[in-house]
Amino acid sequence: MSQRCINDLSTELIIYIFNFLDLRDLGRLRRTCRRFRDIINCWDKIFLKTTTIVSNQNSEKFLTRCFSIIPTKLEKLRLQHNWKHGIYIEKSMFPIRKKYMPWIRIDKENLWFSRGHRIFNYKRNKENIIKSKPNYVLTPKYPRNYSGSGISTFDVTRFTISKDILVGGLSDGGVYIQNLEKNFDFYIDKTDNTYTSSVDISPDHIMVASGMRNDCFKIYAVRPDPIGLTHIHTQELGQRVWCVSYCQDKPLFACGTTAGGPFKKSIWLYDTERYSEILNMKLGHYISSTFDMKWDGPNCLWTCGNDSYLRRWDLRTGQCEQKYHDLFGYSLYCLDYDYFNSIMVGTYLHGRIALWDIRAEKCVQFYFMHGAGGNAINSPVYSLSFDSEYLFAALDQYLNILDFGAYGNRGKHDYIKMFSK
Predict the structure, then answer these.
(1) Could you give the number of structural domains in the chain?
(2) Mind listing the pLDDT tens digit for each residue in 138-171?
(3) pLDDT, tens digit (0-9, with 9 covering 90-100), for 293-330
(4) Cα angle value 386/84/76 (rounded, 5°)
(5) How far apart are CA 199 and CA 241, in angstroms?
(6) Quick one: a GO cellular component term (predicted)?
(7) 38 and 95 part of one domain
(8) Considering the domain boundaries, does residue 270 fall inside one?
(9) Domain range holding 4?
(10) pTM for this one?
(11) Which string of b and e fits 108-137 if b means at least 16 CB within 10 Å?
(12) DSSP string covering 251-278, please?
């Protein structure tokens, strides 16, 4: 009687057997022969039923900023292991002596990085993550009919990009807009000598909102050709506006404030058709600023601020339904979300970023940024963005990039394990 081996079994039986193996055994088995490798790669969703964090790529919005598509569930689990246990290679780039408050945005092919009065565009690649030299540099300019014509020397505070339109806020109260297909189209509106804290553009690209330091937000209509802005509405709130954001799924607009003044409301919601107030929310008896926010579908909103809480608001109840407290009680300056189960926040000290799984109560991991020489950095994380493999952090003197595609335990920084003891 001839001997038979497991490789002689049908694919259905092999998949049934593989269901009894754990992740480590499947990884080893995948390296034994080509057939087992193909079966595990093709059918891993059947016997690997866990949902990953960061590397899940379940949202179309998140996929637009992922450099590459993760091909198999095993690779997603490997990347999740690296995110959870702090296994990464860190690069600290573009050191400078002067301190700034930068802002970053990424998509599949580009990284946008503001520093001072310039916005740099870098092309992403696999080997170096981004090229060392910028693809091009944008500098806001005043229109010819403005008394201060020429290049603006005021800092870009925040900016956003939607399709081919870039909108930025300036530290002199101006708002900058540019069509990226036509590099020389620009416009600055500067009606008040104040500070633009935040900007956003509506999903249909016909309205721009700016949050101002002088206790109001402003709405502008976008002129398409040549591109420009027309001021149409100012809403006085009696408290400084730190962040503004349009909902992509409903005609809604949200702004986060200092929660001061007579109302002590931290978050305000408006109907974008009439810009009439429909809801406002406060943090109980606390008076706390809201520094950043992200929409989670049409009915939920994530926010962070100086009370050291990351909060999820449900607009249907008008209440905070989830909240996560920073372990060290630091202010939270910025956040980013994968629109599924992973959210990260940047804190105001030590260049620290915290990763949260919204299904769990405890923080998953901390990431501390370092300088070019490996020294610790005592800087806020002013802005951050991430995809399935990389984390980008904008600090006062550096741009740091963490690559989680590393193999083995090289570069392990399991800080959450250290602080949990």
Answers:
(1) 2
(2) 888 766 555 555 677 889 999 999 988 999 999 9
(3) 999 999 999 999 998 999 999 999 989 999 999 999 99
(4) 70
(5) 11
(6) SCF ubiquitin ligase complex
(7) no
(8) yes
(9) 1-49
(10) 0.89
(11) eebbbbbbbbbbbbbebeeeebbeeebeee
(12) SEEEEEE---TTT--SEEEEETTT--EE
